[in-house]
C-alpha cells in the first residue's frame, strides 16, 4: 500500500523516546487534519494495539519498506497543550535551525527519571495522656526503641519515617508494632516539590501613580475589547514596572487565565520573587536553573493541572504548559540571556510573540533600555508602546559627570581615578555613604587604542574594532582582515597605543592603595564561584559592611542599595570596542543600568563616567538618560551597515577536529550558498568564510560564514537549503554545522 504523505510520530512524550519516531502512512481522508502537533491514534507493535501519539514531522516518501508502514487510524480533534507545544517546537526549528528533536527537547517538559517523591510520616494516634502512660510501660519493660519513638512523637507530633529509621535508629519492627497497636499512624502522601515558601506578612497594596494607572487602564480596555496585542513598556529603572506587571497579572488571572513571567536568572532573587509571593500567595510558582529536572517537571504538571496561575522563571519558563494561557511578560527584555545558548538558538521574545499568537494571549515586554529589535517593532506599530518617565519614589535622576580620560593624561594623572572621581569618593567616605565602582570588563577581548587621542584600531570593511592576538596581529572577527599591531598611533603619533584592559582585582588593589581607610568588597567571576556567594556579597554590602563595592556587570542589576549615592564607571569604553556590532547598544545599556544604581532612595545620587570618547553617542545619551536619542543614532548605524534589526544575519558555524576538513567544508557551503542565492535571485551579502574569533576551541576548529539580508524568511530558505545539502552530501563527514540567526554572542 502506498500513501501520498507520511507522518513521523512520537508515541510517548518523555525525553527518552523523543529520539524515537515511527513512520505511518496518512490515508487520503486524513490528509487535511494530519498536521504537525496533531494527536493521533495509531496501531502499534506486533498486536497492532491502538495507542496515542503526536505528529512531529511530515514527508512525501517512506523511510522503510512501504509494505511495513501502517496507516494512522484517526486524528483526534481535541486541542491539547502538547499539540500546541509540538507545533511551537516545529516553528522554532524552522526559524532558528537545529533538528526537530533538539527543538522538542527545549519545549517539552521532561519526564525522565522522575520518581514521584513519597513522604511517609508517623504521627501519634492516641491521646497525650495515653501516650505518657505507654511511655511508662515501655520504660518498665525496657523496650528502648519503642520508648524512643513514642517520646519523639510526644514531643513533635509527627516525624518523618526516614528520620525515625535513620536518625533515631528505630528498627522497622518497632515502628510496625506501634502502628499495628494503633498507637502511631503511618501516612504517606505524594508531594509536589513546590519551592515557594509563603511569607506571612500582609501584602501592602500600593496605590499606582498616574503614569502607571494609565498603562493598566489602557491594557484592560484593550483586553475587554477582545484585543490581544503585544506591548512594550519603556520605563526607567525604579519607575514601577513591576507594580504595573502585578496589577495587570491580577486582572488577567481574574479572567481565569494564566500568566508566564520571564525574569533573567540573575535578577531572580529572593527580593524580587517575594514581592510576587506576597501578592499572589501559592498561586505563583518559580522555576530556576538550580532546580532538578524532577522539580521542574513537577512545576509543569502543576501548571497543567491548574494548581498555579503564574510561573516566574528564566527563558525556559516560556514553555510552561498552561492550558489557558492569557499573558506572557518578559521583564528586562533586552537581556542577552533570553537568547538560547544551545541549539536551537531561539530568542525568547520572538517565541513568546509566536506562542501568544497561537494561543490568543497578550505579550508585554518591559525594559529601561529596550533592545533595538523591540523598540523598532514599537516604532513600526507592531508593539504598543507605553512609557514611564519618572521614578516611583526617590529623589529623581542622578547627576552625571562625564570625565575625558585624555585630559587626565595631559594633566599627568596616570591613575585609574580621575580627579573628579577621587574627590567624590573621598566625599562619600567622609559622609559614610556608599560607593559602587563598575568595571565594564566584557570588552576585555583586547581592542587596541591610543591613550593620548582615544583612537581605536578598526576594520576598514566592518567598522568593528580589531582584536589583539598574541603574535602582535590585529584581526577582524567578522571578515578575517588583519594587520600587525602599530607601534605608534596612526592618528596622533603617540607611543601610548596598546591593548586595553584592567581587571577588577587590579582595581581593588588600586582602591586600597588610594583610599586606605575604605572597606572594600569585590564581586566578579572569581569571588562568586560558589552557590550563594553572589547573595552573600550583596547582602553584606546592603548591611553597609563595606563602603565600596567593586564589580563587573553583575553588580548593576536588581538590588536596591538606598545608601549608594555614588557610582563610578572606571572605563566606559571597554564595551564599546568588543568587535561586536551590538557594542554601542551594550555600552548604553550598561551605563544606564549602572547610573540607575545611584540615589535610589531619598539621598540624591551622582555618577561619574570615565571615558576616552566623551562624544560617543552611546555615552552622551546614557549620561542624559535619553533613550530616544540613542535609538535614532544606533538605528542609523545598523541600517548603514546592514546589521539587525533593520537587516538580518544568518551565521553558519562549521566545526571539525581537522582544520583541513573544516576549511574544505566551509568553502563548499559558502559556494553552495552563493549559487543558491544567485539561482533564487536573493539579493544577500555573503561574508567570509573566515576563522571564528575563537578559531580553535578544545582542539576543534571553527570556521564561519555570515549571510546578511533584509528579509528573515529568505535567510530561513538559505538555511534550509544549506542544511539539506549538508545532511545529504557525503562530503561533510567529520564536520558539524550550526546556525545562529541574528547572533548575540561572539564566535
Ligand atoms: P521597576 O520594576 O521599574 O524597576 P519597581 O516596580 O521595582 O520598578 O518599583 C521601584 C520601587 O518603587 C519599589 O520599591 C516599589 O515598591 C516602589 N513603587 C512602585 N510604584 C509605586 C507607587 N505607585 N507608589 C509608591 N511606591 C511605588
Ligand atoms: Zn593617538
Ligand atoms: Zn572586517
Question: How would you describe this structure to a colleague?
Answer:
With 747 residues, the protein is α/β, with parallel strands linked by helices. The protein folds into 5 domains: 6-107, 3-Layer(aba) Sandwich (GIY-YIG endonuclease), CATH 3.40.1440; 117-191, no CATH class; 210-388, 3-Layer(aba) Sandwich (Rossmann fold); 399-443 and 502-639, Rossmann fold, CATH 3.40.50; 648-741, Alpha-Beta Plaits (2-Layer Sandwich). Helix content is 34%, strand content 22%. The chain contains 22 helices and 30 strands. The strands form 7 sheets. A 7-stranded parallel sheet has the order 11-12-10-13-14-9-15, with helices on both faces. Strands 16-26-25-17-24-23 form a 6-stranded parallel sheet, with helices on both faces. A 5-stranded antiparallel sheet has the order 2-1-4-3-5, covered by helices on one side. Helix 2 (81-96) packs across helix 3 (100-107), helix 4 runs antiparallel to helix 5 and helix 8 (210-224) packs parallel to helix 9. The site of adenosine-5'-diphosphate (ADP) has 15 residues, from helix 9.
Amino acid at each position: 500500500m502506498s500513501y501520498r504523505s507520511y507522518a513521523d510520530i512520537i508515541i510517548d512524550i518523555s525525553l527518552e523516546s523523543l529520539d524515537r519516531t515511527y513512520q505511518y502512512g496518512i490515508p487520503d481522508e486524513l490528509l487535511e487534519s494530519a498536521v504537525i502537533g496533531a494527536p493521533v491514534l495509531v496501531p502499534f507493535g506486533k498486536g497492532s494495539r491502538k495507542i496515542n501519539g503526536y505528529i512531529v514531522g511530515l514527508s512525501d516518501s517512506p523511510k522503510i519498506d512501504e509494505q511495513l508502514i501502517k496507516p494512522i487510524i484517526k486524528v483526534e480533534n481535541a486541542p491539547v497543550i502538547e499539540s500546541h507545544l509540538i507545533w511551537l517546537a516545529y516553528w522554532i526549528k524552522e526559524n532558528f535551525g537545529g533538528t526537530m528533536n533538539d527543538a522538542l527537547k527545549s519545549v517539552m517538559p521532561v519526564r525522565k527519571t522522575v520518581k514521584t517523591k513519597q513522604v511517609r510520616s508517623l504521627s501519634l494516634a492516641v491521646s497525650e495522656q495515653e501516650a505518657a502512660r505507654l511511655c511508662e510501660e515501655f520504660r518498665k519493660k525496657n523496650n528502648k526503641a519503642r520508648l524512643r519513638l513514642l517520646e519523639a512523637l510526644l514531643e513533635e507530633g509527627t516525624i518523618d519515617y526516614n528520620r525515625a529509621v535513620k536518625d533515631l535508629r528505630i528498627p522497622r519492627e518497632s515502628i510496625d508494632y506501634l502502628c499495628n497497636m494503633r498507637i502511631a499512624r503511618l501516612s504517606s502522601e505524594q508531594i509536589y516539590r513546590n519551592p515557594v515558601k509563603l511569607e506571612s506578612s500582609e501584602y501592602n497594596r500600593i496605590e499606582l501613580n498616574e503614569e502607571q494607572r494609565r498603562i493598566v487602564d489602557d491594557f484592560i480596555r484593550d483586553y475587554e475589547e477582545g484585543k490581544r496585542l503585544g506591548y512594550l513598556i519603556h520605563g526607567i529603572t525604579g519607575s514601577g514596572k513591576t507594580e504595573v506587571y502585578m496589577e495587570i497579572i491580577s486582572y488577567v488571572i481574574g479572567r481565569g487565565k494564566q500568566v508566564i513571567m520571564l525574569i533573567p536568572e540573575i535578577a531572580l532573587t529572593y527580593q524580587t520573587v517575594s514581592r510576587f509571593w506576597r501578592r499572589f500567595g501559592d498561586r505563583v510558582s518559580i522555576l530556576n536553573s538550580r532546580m532538578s529536572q524532577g522539580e521542574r517537571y513537577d512545576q509543569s504538571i502543576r501548571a497543567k493541572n491548574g494548581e498555579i496561575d503564574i510561573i516566574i522563571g528564566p527563558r525556559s519558563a516560556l514553555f510552561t504548559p498552561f492550558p489557558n494561557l492569557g499573558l506572557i511578560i518578559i521583564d528586562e527584555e533586552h537581556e542577552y540571556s533570553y537568547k538560547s545558548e544551545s541549539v536551537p538558538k531561539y530568542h525568547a521574545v520572538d517565541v513568546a510573540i509566536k506562542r501568544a499568537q497561537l494561543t490568543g494571549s497578550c505579550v508585554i515586554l518591559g525594559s529601561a533600555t529596550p533592545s533595538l529589535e523591540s523598540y523598532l517593532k514599537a516604532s513600526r506599530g507592531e508593539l504598543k508602546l507605553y512609557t514611564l518617565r519618572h521614578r516611583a519614589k526617590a529623589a529623581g535622576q542622578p547627576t552625571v559627570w562625564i570625565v575625558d580620560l585624555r585630559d587626565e593624561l595631559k594633566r599627568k594623572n596616570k591613575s585609574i581615578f580621575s580627579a573628579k572621581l577621587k574627590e567624590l569618593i573621598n566625599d562619600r567616605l567622609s559622609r559614610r555613604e556608599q560607593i559602587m565602582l563598575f568595571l565594564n570588563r566584557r570588552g576585555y577581548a583586547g581592542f587596541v587604542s591610543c591613550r593620548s587621542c582615544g583612537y581605536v584600531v578598526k576594520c576598514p570593511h566592518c567598522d568593528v574594532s580589531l582584536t589583539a592576538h598574541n603574535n602582535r596581529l590585529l584581526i577582524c572577527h567578522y571578515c578575517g582582515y588583519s594587520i600587525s599591531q602599530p607601534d605608534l598611533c596612526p592618528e596622533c603619533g603617540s607611543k601610548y597605543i596598546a591593548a586595553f584592559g584592567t581587571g577588577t582585582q587590579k582595581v581593588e588593589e588600586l582602591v586600597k592603595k588610594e583610599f586606605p581607610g575604605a572597606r572594600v568588597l569585590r564581586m566578579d567571576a572569581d569571588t562568586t564561584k560558589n552557590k550563594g556567594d553572589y547573595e552573600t556579597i550583596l547582602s553584606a554590602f546592603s548591611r553597609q559592611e563595606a563602603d565600596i563595592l567593586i564589580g563587573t556587570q553583575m553588580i548593576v542589576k536588581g538590588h536596591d542599595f538606598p545608601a549608594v549615592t555614588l557610582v563610578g564607571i572606571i572605563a566606559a569604553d571597554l564595551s564599546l570596542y568588543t568587535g561586536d556590532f551590538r557594542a554601542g547598544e551594550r555600552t548604553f545599556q550598561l551605563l544606564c543600568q549602572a547610573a540607575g544604581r545611584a540615589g535610589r532612595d531619598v539621598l540624591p545620587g551622582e555618577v561619574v563616567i570615565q571615558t576616552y570618547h566623551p562624544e560617543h553617542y552611546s555615552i552622551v545619551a546614557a549620561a542624559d538618560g535619553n533613550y530616544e536619542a540613542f535609538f535614532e543614532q544606533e538605528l542609523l548605524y545598523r541600517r548603514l551597515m546592514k546589521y539587525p534589526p533593520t537587516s538580518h544575519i544568518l551565521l553558519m558555524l562549521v566545526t571539525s577536529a581537522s582544520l583541513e576538513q573544516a576549511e574544505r567544508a566551509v568553502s563548499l557551503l559558502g559556494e553552495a550558498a552563493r549559487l543558491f542565492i544567485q539561482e533564487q535571485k536573493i539579493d544577500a551579502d555573503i561574508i567570509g568564510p573566515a576563522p571564528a574569533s575563537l578559531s580553535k576551541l578544545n582542539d576543534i576548529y571553527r570556521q564561519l560564514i555570515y549571510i546578511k539580508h533584509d528579509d528573515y524568511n529568505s535567510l530561513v530558505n538559505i538555511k534550509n537549503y544549506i542544511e539539506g545539502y549538508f545532511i545529504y552530501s557525503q562530503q561533510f563527514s567529520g564536520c558539524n554545522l550550526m546556525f545562529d540567526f541574528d547572533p548575540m554572542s561572539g564566535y
